[in-house]
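Thread: nicotinamide-adenine-dinucleotide complex, take 2
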Amino acid sequence: MVDRIKVGLVGIGNCFSGLIQGIEYYRKNPSQEVTGIIHDKLAGYGIHDIDFVCGFDVGETKVGKPLNEAIYGYPNMVDWISKNDMPKTDAKVYESPLLDGVGIWVENRVKPISSTKTTEQIADEVKQVIKDSGVEIIVSYLPVGSDKVTEFWAQICLDTNTAFVNCIPSFIASDEKWAKKFEEKNIPCIGDDIKGQVGATIVHRTLAKLCNDRGTKIEKTYQINVGGNTDFLNMKEQDRLVSKKISKTESVQSQLNERLDDDQIYVGPSDFIPFLGNTKLMFMRIEGRQWANIPYNMEVRLEVDDKANSAGIVIDAIRLAKIALDRGIGGPIKPASAYLMKHPIEQTSDIAAKTACEKFVAGQ
Ligand SMILES: NC(=O)c1ccc[n+]([C@@H]2O[C@H](COP(=O)([O-])OP(=O)(O)OC[C@H]3O[C@@H](n4cnc5c(N)ncnc54)[C@H](O)[C@@H]3O)[C@@H](O)[C@H]2O)c1
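Output below.
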């Protein structure tokens, strides 16, 4: 019999909705094989051993609501399990500080609650909620461009001895200064910026590595992504996008034998197409040269539900954070970060990361 894993959620958007609805889907359909990458038990922990004990958000459709209602709050759009079929929970959604504000493109969709509290007051309340509900892992799915809020939550984790799983491209686990703080307090941290199960990054990395491993020379490459949810709408704001582009571009560059010049590689979220909803389309092209300097190119189109893509990975990140807690291992959890995140503190090939992760789980 394993412990329950008590998790607090930050940013109750589509990604968390997909995670929670997915777990409920498997509960209602026990004969279905769980299709996450480490689908079976991880050191004894299965997907039903997780309790989401509280959430934090700023939106008026989320704050103050029970978690089972908040995950359906506008503008969330994941609807795999109907709202009435979702079991009720005592877990509530509490206030998070606004800090970086709501992006200009999403401000007519995400209406923050009117609050008179200072960041310090919110921090005190948050720490009390974490204590009262026994949270041992905080998972963040904040919008892109939430650098200050991410630092707020990283500090909360340090102050409350809570592990941190950072699914977004605001750098904590991969930032030397923050990584050291987590190391010094021996608190596990997994990040940054979650990879999809079969997402644009993993497909692009894998094919770029294949081209290199087959001895060809990649000359230029691009990856364009479009989608129709608030994540894509928010990413139209270039000022909020700086770290996302670094995270996605470095994830591909790290797999090449020779780095491409900046003007020979473009990797980015590129536009919002409303009717796509949570469907993400990725278009990727690699151009290079093979034997006798003869040119070749390839193009890939990927169509995928972005939320299923991320939930199938975060379910493992949570369990790996719990394993680290159980074993008293702190600081950035390098095997888990390299395997599951786009921007880990140490990039490796995905095969090497998988092997390291398996060894970590086996306690080697
Ligand atoms: N495959 C994927 O979906 C994937 C992959 C990698 C990274 N991500 C990242 O995960 C994040 C979440 O994606 P999503 O689709 O759930 O986004 P979303 O827009 O659906 O949800 C974001 C949530 O954060 C809340 N929020 C805004 N400001 C906040 C604050 N200051 N404090 C607390 N909550 C706040 C919003 O109200 C909303 O509920 C994004 O940064 C996205 O880029 C997603």
